[in-house]
Amino acid sequence: MSISQQQLPNDIWQVEVRGRLDQSQTPDLNAALIELINAEHYRLIVNLSDVSYINSGGLRCLVSAWRKAQARNGNVILFGLNDRLCEIFTMIGFDKVFQIYPTQEEALSAMPSL
Amino acid sequence: MGEKHVLKVRGLYNNIRQICDFVTEGAQAAGLGEGAMFHIELACDEACTNIIEHAYEGENVGEIVVSWWVAGSDFVVTFRDNGRSFDPTNVPPPAITDLSTTADPENLRVGGLGIHFMRNLMDDIQYSFDPNKGNTLTMIKHIVGE
């Protein structure tokens, strides 16, 4: 799995995830999200279009970042989920927790103004 | 009952992928489709995580013995371990309201999520404990075409 970060206008950071969000690889994403939040970047969009698999540990990682961002008036918005990931998010009601969009443009539009 | 296929590995997070591959390859051979294979993979992943975290209470404490076979129109998977008695079917489902921002982010019940997946992704799950044989978790997926 690979993780990369990119700063966008309006202090929005995009996190790119590729591969499988499972036990062996979720720690990399967790470290990236914690680093951003510790640097006081609370407006995050996460590109999951190249993620083929996610388990409960991967979901916990995303929820943890979402909570921390929300507590500081930020947000973690997800986009690009494939059908399998959408099914998993819906199964546990996380589609109601996260704002999830098909494209980056929609995710950016959904981020509240500064 | 079809031929029984068995894999024994140490209870390590890094071995879970091997277990999932072993089972999903069996599911494919049994004629299950891509969607069902994805369900089985995630259910197996969560079952193994529960064994390491709750039955063994840590990594590299004991073995996980995974078996799969076909019984009629069912694909059957069992997990055996020699950890402490842990019945995942008794774990309450996660409460989504716990996700409020006032809750401690680290306290999300991952085990609760895992069993929720196992219940929803598989057609049946059963648990038994024997003082000599340890924990046995059985999960069944009906073999239907997609």
Identify the quaternary structure here: heterodimer
State the helicity of chain B in percent bands: 25-40%
In the CATH hierarchy, what is the class of chain B? Answer: Alpha Beta
CATH architecture annotation name of chain B: 2-Layer Sandwich
Main-sheet strand order of chain A equals: 1-2-3-4-5
**Number of DSSP helical runs of chain A:** 5
User: Which H/E pattern describes the elements of chain A?
Assistant: EEHEHEHHEH
N-end to C-end Cα span of chain B: 23 Å
Name the features.
heterodimer; A: 114 residues; alpha/beta; Transcription Regulator spoIIAA; 5-stranded mixed sheet; 5 helices; 5 strands; globular; B: 146 residues; alpha+beta; Heat Shock Protein 90; 5-stranded antiparallel sheet; 33% helix
Secondary structure topology:
The complex is a heterodimer of chains A (114) and B (146).
Chain A: E1 2-8, E2 12-21, H1 26-38, E3 43-54, H2 56-71, E4 75-79, H3 83-91, H4 94-97, E5 100-101, H5 104-110
Parallel strand pairs in A: 2-3, 3-4, 4-5
Antiparallel strand pairs in A: 1-2
Chain B: E1 5-10, H1 16-29, H2 34-55, E2 63-71, E3 74-81, H3 110-121, E4 124-130, E5 134-142
Antiparallel strand pairs in B: 1-2, 2-3, 3-5, 4-5
